């Protein structure tokens, strides 16, 4: 089972009624940022070397784009690493509460499968690397 499917399989809305896709998780996270923090978020995505081993996104691809287009561009650029990149940038812009929420969102809910639990543990471990 692919990484994105595992993440989607363990991501739940707070209401517990609907599973979220990884794209929805990232979009919801970006929607929690104010305008200035969203611009800082995009700025970091454009900086070479700011995101560990991950490439920068060209400025032209993020200029004057909304949160949905930003999510699309992030998934085109980072694929299965988009949630990790999101966490890295959130730490850089001092949005540690959102990092915590992101980590909780992708953690295994109670009663899940052992495969999902293993993926949740690895994602949880990755989230501590963001800090």
Automatic annotation (TrEMBL):
Comp. bias (Polar residues): 121-131
Comp. bias regions, Low complexity: 107-120
Ranges of residues in domain Pyrin: 19-78
Stretches the record annotates as Disordered: 106-131
A Pfam family it matches: PYRIN
Protein name stated in the entry: Pyrin domain-containing protein
Source organism: Perca flavescens
Source species taxonomy: Eukaryota, Metazoa, Chordata, Craniata, Vertebrata
């Amino acid at each position: 089972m692919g990484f994105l499917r595992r993440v989607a399989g363990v991501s739940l809305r707070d209401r517990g009624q609907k599973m979220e896709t990884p794209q929805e998780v990232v979009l919801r996270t970006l929607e929690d940022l104010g305008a200035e923090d969203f611009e800082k978020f995009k700025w970091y995505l454009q900086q070479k070397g700011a995101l560990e081993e991950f490439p920068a996104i060209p400025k032209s691809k993020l200029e004057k784009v909304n949160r949905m287009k930003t999510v699309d561009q992030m998934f085109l650029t980072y694929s299965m690493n988009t949630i990790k990149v999101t966490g890295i940038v959130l730490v850089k812009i001092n949005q540690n509460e959102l990092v915590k929420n992101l980590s909780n969102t992708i953690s295994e809910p109670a009663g899940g499968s052992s495969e999902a639990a293993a993926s949740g543990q690895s994602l949880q471990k990755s989230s501590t690397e963001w800090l």
